[in-house]
Structure formats: structure tokens, C-alpha cells
Amino acid sequence: MIPTGRVEQGRISGDFARPTDTPQPVFILVRPQMGENIGAAARAMWNFGLDRMRIVAPRDGWPNQKAVVMASGAGRLLDEAGVFDSVADAAGDCTYVFATTARQRDLTKTVMSPEHAMQIARDRIAGGQKVAVLFGPERAGLENDDIARADALISVPVNPEFPSLNLAQCVLLTGYEWRRHAVDVTPQSVELAGTDWAPVIEIEKLAEHYENRLEEAGFFFPQDKAASMKINLRNLWARMALTRADVQMLHGILRQMVRWKERGSEPLEAALTAP
Q1: What is the pLDDT of residue 126?
Q2: Does residue 191 fall inside a structural domain?
């Protein structure tokens, strides 16, 4: 194993950073071909709170300044990364290993979706095991010799006519599924911009305001349909998820329209009634 320290001007210093204590899988990049993809993978990992990176025999050597540039704020992962000569060395301390692949292999293996795989990873890590995920080189992915060392495969349901995923994309997708199981993800929420939801009483007052003004304008016509029209209007207000700011704005719109009508109609009426 060749440990890495901080990448500075193409050399490794002795200033070692420390990864977080958060339980998580180890992501192992196997024979990555481009420093940019290593950096992008580091950035993708840190997006989802993952900072255990290991690198096996990078084609362009290590450290790699292009990786540092591409990491864009996640350079700490590169500082902490370990560089190994082989997959066996990189995963040597792990008790369960996943291998990512988009191709069918002539090997009997359990194949999981990223979502299920990361749930299994979480359960095993919670039980005290150390889990690793292998990601293959950009051009052809993992070799069968690498796959044979894995306990299970992770496969993404990609387009069969174009199954190749970029290294960082694969890391991002797997990291996302890990994060989904690590935190409570709210399926949908609304960010209230400095306001609150309008209570029923305010919605009722708004409905009355519009109903009264529309009544004055003769909107509820013919008379035999007025009751159902008012019910439909009330139902419209009830279906709208209005904030207190929305209610105030709608009151203001109607008031301004009435003022405009009253100011603009006087000269017109005077003109029409003039001899």
C-alpha cells in the first residue's frame, strides 16, 4: 500500500488529513484512467457525505493535479485516499465487497439494484462489518478477475444500447442511494418564504370578499345558478394552498381593481349622461 498525504504541486506531503467517523462503505476506484474522473468521483462522494476513497493503480500515477482541480472543494478526500497496487490489497480489510458493472458476466453472482445494495451495505455496516464498493476503469469497466473477488454485483438499469456510465456518474448514483438510507428524505416539502399557511378563517374572509364584490358586479348570473357558482368558487379557494402572504396579495388585487373601476368610471358616466 502507498499511502497518500496532501497533494501539493505534484508531490505528497506528510500532512495527513483524517476522514470523518461516520460509518460508511469504502469506495474503491480500480485502475482509473483520468485524473479528472478521480476528482469528479471525490466530489460526487462528498456530495453525499462519503469520504472513504481508495485508488488501485491509477493510470497516470499519483498524486494527480488534474484530480485536485476537478475535486473542487472535495480535495480532502484525495488527501485521505489510499493508493494500492491491486484490488486484493485495497479490499483486504473488508468483509463484504460489491462490484459495479453494466455488462453481463459469465460468473454466477447475486445482482442487486443500487438502492437494495446500499440497504444491504447499511445493515452489514451496522452489524460491524466493513463494506467496499468497486468501480471499474472508464473504458471497459471491471475485469472478471476483479468481479470474482466481489460478493455481489450492483447493476443499474441503463439503456442496453448505451450501457456505459462515466466513473463519476456511477459513484454519484451509488452515493445517492447510500445517502437516501442514511438520512430521512422528505418526498415533498414546501419552503415558506417568510410566511405561514393561511388559516381557514382567513381563507373564509377572502372568499367572502370576492363573493361580495362579484355579487356587486353581477357575476353570479343567471340567478338560478348563483348558488352553485358560489359553491364552486368556495371550492376553488379551498383547493388552493394559500399562504397568509398570498391571501393579503389577493385582497390587495381586488381592492385595487375596485378603486381603479371607481376612479375610471366617473368621467365615463359623466360623459354618457351629458346633454
Answers
A1: 95
A2: no
